[in-house]
Design goal:
The complex is a heterodimer of chains A (about 110) and B (about 110).
Chain A lengths: L3 E3 L4 E4 L4 E7 L6 E7 L6 E7 L2 E5 L2 E6 L4 E6 L8 E8 L7 E2 L3 E6 L1
Parallel strand pairs in A: 2-11
Antiparallel strand pairs in A: 1-3, 3-8, 4-5, 4-9, 6-7, 7-8, 9-10, 9-11
Chain B lengths: L4 E3 L2 E4 L5 E6 L6 E8 L3 E9 L2 E5 L6 E5 L5 E5 L8 E8 L9 E2 L3 E5 L1
Parallel strand pairs in B: 2-11
Antiparallel strand pairs in B: 1-3, 3-8, 4-5, 4-9, 5-6, 7-8, 9-10, 9-11
Classes of the chains: A mainly beta (about 110), B mainly beta (about 110).
Chain lengths: ~110, ~110
């Protein structure tokens, strides 16, 4: 079993839709939770970063962490064609430990 | 532009060969990380260096090695290459040495082993 599980998609939505992307993780030691966006043929770039449980909002993006169920989510409001990319969730227990990534969900926003 | 530079962008080689991938971190960043990305395994952490010293090791094969030089650039050496080593290799950098810091990724090196 992978430490971080993510539905690979692809997920296609019309422009303006609310998008929900989700991950589950198995290691209760994970405390830091991140979402990265990766455009085709580019490196991942950090979108959202949260510590422990709760919500964090940044513009059209909201990250949500539920440590009791080991579930992390990213919501995108008013989705745009420029949001079309692969979204990777990532977790880390802190210290010198490696960041563990999900396999990514490919999102396509159709104009 | 993340500020992390990786060369070459593409590399095509044959099985059994050895290649070197190069990474220059963002100005001021002391940590360099190497990741391997394949379709079935996703982004896999290989190794981290901080200011020239190895800090953390992930799923790195014995045929692979890395180092970070005094000018902070890093090289990933892949030897006795196999078909399964074909993947996108990313370098990332961060300011410090704890891995919950923001990582800045380069554009990657696409390795094709034929």
């Amino acid at each position: 079993q992978k430490e971080v599980e993510q539905d690979p998609g692809p997920l296609s939505v019309p422009e303006g839709a609310i998008v929900s992307l989700n991950c589950t993780y198995s290691n209760s030691a994970f405390q830091y939770f991140m979402w990265y966006r990766q455009y085709s043929r580019k490196g991942p770039e950090l979108l959202m970063y949260t510590y422990s449980s709760g919500n964090k909002e940044d513009g059209r993006f909201t990250a949500q962490v539920d440590k009791s169920s080991k579930y992390i989510s990213l919501f995108i409001r008013d989705s745009q064609p420029s949001d079309s990319a692969t979204y990777l969730c990532a977790t880390d227990s802190g210290g010198y430990q490696k960041v563990t990534f999900g396999t990514g969900t490919k999102l396509q926003v159709i104009p | 532009d993340s500020g992390v530079t990786q060369t070459p962008k593409h590399l095509i080689t044959a099985t059994g060969q050895r290649v070197t991938l190069r990474c220059s971190p963002r100005s001021g960043d002391l940590s360099v990380y190497w990741y391997q990305q394949s379709l079935d395994q996703g982004l896999q952490f290989l190794i981290q260096y901080y200011n020239g010293e190895e800090r953390a090791k992930g799923n790195i094969l014995e045929r692979f090695s890395a180092q970070q030089f005094p000018d902070l650039h890093s090289e990933l050496n892949l030897s006795s290459l196999e078909l399964g080593d074909s993947a996108l290799y990313f370098c990332a950098s961060s300011a410090g040495q704890v891995t919950n810091e923001k990582l800045f990724f380069g554009s990657g090196t696409q390795l094709s082993v034929l």
